[in-house]
Write a structure and sequence with these properties.
three-stranded parallel beta sheet, elongated
Length: about 140
């Protein structure tokens, strides 16, 4: 709804700060020296086909087709956030069940330790799904 063009680097950084105050977290996508300050000021800076200054200031670097690369980075970030939530749920579920059961003597300590190991294994195996993600599957 709003376009800001022809801004100086300091004005871009100020615009990022203004958007953060008004809207929350800000992602800045840029490709040049003039974008480096705003990339560094953003919550997430994405450099596309960039200069050394933009590459140094960015949190994410997109190679190749910029639009597809940014979309892919967002999709991977969303998938990673989902897997992180799942991992937290599994870890809390294992701990919420096994620790009280062991403390009450309902579960042998060796079995409680095995449950903790199983919790860690479940988290690792669930996280491995991210390595197999394809862009088409994320759409």
């Amino acid at each position: 709804a709003e376009v800001r063009a022809g801004l100086l680097p300091e004005e871009k950084a100020a615009a990022v700060e203004e958007l953060r105050r008004e809207c929350g977290p800000v992602v800045m996508v840029g490709d040049g020296v003039n974008d480096a300050l705003a990339l560094a000021a953003a919550d997430a800076g994405v450099a596309v086909g960039a200069t050394a200054a933009a590459l140094a200031a960015a949190d994410v670097i997109v190679m190749g087709e910029p639009a597809a690369g940014v979309a892919h980075a967002v999709a991977v970030a969303r998938a990673a956030a989902g897997v992180t939530r799942q991992n937290l749920w599994w870890a809390f579920a294992f701990n919420a069940l096994a620790i009280p059961a062991a403390a009450l003597g309902l579960l042998h300590p060796v079995m409680a330790a095995a449950a903790m190991g199983a919790s860690s294994l479940a988290v690792v195996l669930n996280s491995q799904r991210l390595a197999r993600l394809r862009l088409e599957a994320l759409r």
